[in-house]
């Protein structure tokens, strides 16, 4: 009985997140009606309030899901292309910036997310990315590949650079023109951490 109830609650939550994701991507957060959103999946406002507290809580769950997918895709791209830890770290950063060209990511994570939920660096999904970056930098420091700097400081600045580059691309009137500039600048900034081999 308890297991079935938990399963039903998980199904309801998943339905609401899927409906929220569609609505927020198509209409944006402000234009999304809670009644329309819940009716689309045969649920009530009460189900939304019970699971997420309010529309803002639902947006937080949707942002977490989409942002997590962005990070997963970036990591998969790094694995696919191969290379050492440093090359993979750069590939992940660039892939995260490139995700800003995806309309769903633009609207939900990079435009509405910060406007409604506040500073992205405080989001749970961003904190997971930070932990992964710190782990990678610690490995690189252990092999002497990067300069002796604070791992946390370097990770926060690298992640912040990728995030802010993505925010810039998403908000730009000409993202196609801005994207290569953002990637080039991010790569140069990040590479400043590397220990250069003597000529």
UniProtKB/TrEMBL annotation:
This is Transcriptional regulator, TetR family. InterPro entries: Homeodomain-like_sf, HTH-type_TetR-like_transc_reg, HTH_TetR, Rv0078-like_C. Residues 33-52 bind DNA. It comes from Albimonas pacifica. Transmembrane segments: none annotated. The lineage of its organism: Bacteria, Pseudomonadati, Pseudomonadota, Alphaproteobacteria, Rhodobacterales. Keywords: DNA-binding. The keyword Magnesium does not apply. SUPFAM superfamilies: Homeodomain-like (SSF46689). Coiled coil: none annotated. GO terms for molecular function: DNA-binding transcription factor activity; transcription cis-regulatory region binding. Residues 10-70 form the HTH tetR-type domain. PANTHER family: HTH-TYPE TRANSCRIPTIONAL REGULATOR RUTR, HTH-TYPE TRANSCRIPTIONAL REGULATOR UIDR.
């Amino acid at each position: 009985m308890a297991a079935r109830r938990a399963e039903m609650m998980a199904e309801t939550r998943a339905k609401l997140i899927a409906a929220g994701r569609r609505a927020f991507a198509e209409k944006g957060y402000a234009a999304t009606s809670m009644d329309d959103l819940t009716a689309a999946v045969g649920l009530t406002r009460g189900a939304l309030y019970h699971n997420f507290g309010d529309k803002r809580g639902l947006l937080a769950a949707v942002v977490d899901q989409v942002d997590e997918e962005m990070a997963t895709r970036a990591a998969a791209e790094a694995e696919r292309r191969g290379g050492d830890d440093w090359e993979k770290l750069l590939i992940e950063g660039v892939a995260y910036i490139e995700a800003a060209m995806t309309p769903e990511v633009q609207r939900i994570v990079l435009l509405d997310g910060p406007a409604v939920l506040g500073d992205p660096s405080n989001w749970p999904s961003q904190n997971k990315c930070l932990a992964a970056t710190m782990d990678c930098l610690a490995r690189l420091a252990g092999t002497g590949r990067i300069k002796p700097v604070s791992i946390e400081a370097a990770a926060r600045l690298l992640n912040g650079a990728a995030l802010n580059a993505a925010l810039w691309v998403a908000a730009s009137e000409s993202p196609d023109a801005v994207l290569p500039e953002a990637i080039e600048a991010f790569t140069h900034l990040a590479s400043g951490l590397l220990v250069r081999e003597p000529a």
